[in-house]
Amino acid sequence: xxxxxxxxxxxxxxxxxxxxxxxxxxxxxxxxxxxxxxxxxxxxxxxxxxxxxxxxxxxxxxxxxxxxxxxxxxxxxxxxxxxxxxxxxxxxxxxxxxxxxxxxxxxxxxxxxxxxxxxxxxxxxxxxxxxxxxxxxxxxxxxxxxxxxxxxxxxxxxxxxxxxxxxxxxxxxxxxxxxxxxxxxxxxxxxxxxxxxxxxxxxxxxxxxxxxxxxxxxxxxxxxxxxxxxxxxxxxxxxxxxxxxxxxxxxxxxxxxxxxxxxxxxxxxxxxxxxxxxxxxxxxxxxxxxxxxxxxxxxxxxxxxxxxxxxxxxxxxxxxxxxxxxxxxxxxxxxxxxxxxxxxxxxxxxxxxxx
Length: 355
Description:
By secondary structure, the protein is α/β, with parallel strands linked by helices. It is 40% helix and 12% strand.
């Protein structure tokens, strides 16, 4: 039976992903100065997570990604949280996304005509648990067995959490992706996307050719899509082209704002891209991307702009969110280096703290 993601892609030319969770929580006042990062809010401010999910749906997202990127048994243990409680928090993260989906459908006047958003349970790399920026470098020095022992328990919890799929994201290396793909084979009815953090227009964070990474995953039945995330927008088009030459799987792209994370000082450096994500999106579609969204330092306004930019070019975007207006839009920046911005789609409520 086709996966939930495959069924949606069969009826839609492109699906809109959500944007950042952690940096959007920070914009709304959450204190994430913690190795758990966004997972801290699972303990202290779960309603804020649900509110962010809801705003992404209002902006037009077809897929929500859960607050489990940095939610690991090891990370929770350092906070004195045992394995049973940690597993409950992971399941609660999925429940928060489901609750936002239900709330959105209840408030939407034509909910019965709209496909429900899919819930993707986020699985960050081993380096995210270290909280030292290792996901942007790779080279952990771990065996396949050690990586499998780290990832297996969380995957098992999320596989039974009610999520529609798994989002294995910000992976720095082919090794970690292949380990995750093998683990998926042991989990019935579970599919996932694999997304790499990349250092330039051809290589992942560890320096491996992304075409080789995509080719290595091409025969993995449980891998539903491959692509790149938390990468500078200007690199994404070339990266997708390289991947497209090596795989038949759908491609995905959800770059960051163009800024660079300084792991030592726990802050973002360099200014964002001078172009909006929406202005890049048609290029990514031409390069084969079927799932497009944002990562760190992007928010609901950027997702609303992506939806508006992609709907006119590709026909109606799969309607998990409100119908968009034509043209590119949003406050993320101009539609091109000098082009004007237009208003977000009707039905989108801009949060006070969004850019």
